[in-house]
Amino acid sequence: MNTKYTAIRLSIVLLVSAVGFSGCYAINEKHYNDIINIEANFARLKAADEKLAQRIAILQPFEQALKAEFAPELRQHSASIQHPSASTVGMAMHGPLLFSSGSTELTNSGRALLTRLAVALKKAPDEAIIRVIGHSDQLPLRGSLKTNHLDNWGLSSARAAAVARILVWGKKINANKIYVEGRSFYDPINATKSKKANNRRVEVFVELMNR
Prior knowledge:
The chain has six helices and five strands. The model has no long low-confidence stretch (mean pLDDT 83). A five-stranded mixed sheet has the order 1-2-5-3-4. Helix content is 50%, strand content 17%. Helix 2 crosses helix 4 (108-121). It folds into two domains: 3-53; 58-208, CATH 3.30.1330.60. By secondary structure, it is α+β, with helices and mostly antiparallel strands.
């Protein structure tokens, strides 16, 4: 049995034992309420854990599909599986995997990668939504990027939107389930200068809504 459940059960036994050793052969109202509250907490914790396990199990086919489809990229660390919460799983695609430097146009290899991602997304549960989140590094925009985008918010949003368009228009993913977001450089995953390319990424998450 889970350790925390064992601890709660032990609390109940100790409480009842304390009543007996204190010379009280009848449990008074306070002791009775204490026992009822502990039992209720035990039931709530167990129900919450069971619900959590169910949510994890629902997402497992999608996660397994990601791991199988993107094994080469995961080994090369150009992509990574992400678990922001028990209700969310997805993949980050780093650096030049989708876009050339200074561009918001998907490369041919990036389009091919999204075709593979669409296959994995078919394994996502029907009740889930899909979040596409773009990220940039802290470098100021230059050249055509500065001309076309006000700042890194605009750049990261544009790249996320480019990914979403391919998934919706080219791969027939339900547009009503997709949410697009740009985070600029405010969620870095690596502060090391030599690895700043990892901060330039697009993440695609499958998220179970609260129910």
